Amino acid sequence: MQCGSGVFTAQEIADARTADPPLVVHLTRVAGLLTLLGGVIMLIAGNAGIGVAIILLSALYFALAEIIRYLAVIARGSGSRED
Prior knowledge:
Distance between the termini: 11 Å
Number of strands: 0
Number of helices: 3
């Protein structure tokens, strides 16, 4: 990463993608899957309004997991070089 510019090299991006994401990312994805399952069950059970709301909530969980993952990549990359 160039100092102060916020630009990552292709090698740094590839290294960050191969690293395991933090545990909170896995837990957030599991919460998203369970919420999605609950939303589908609510849709099948006949309460469509609540089912759609729960499915949208699961989409927020998945988005939050991706945001946390990208923040972890940035945090890993920012501390790897010295000035």
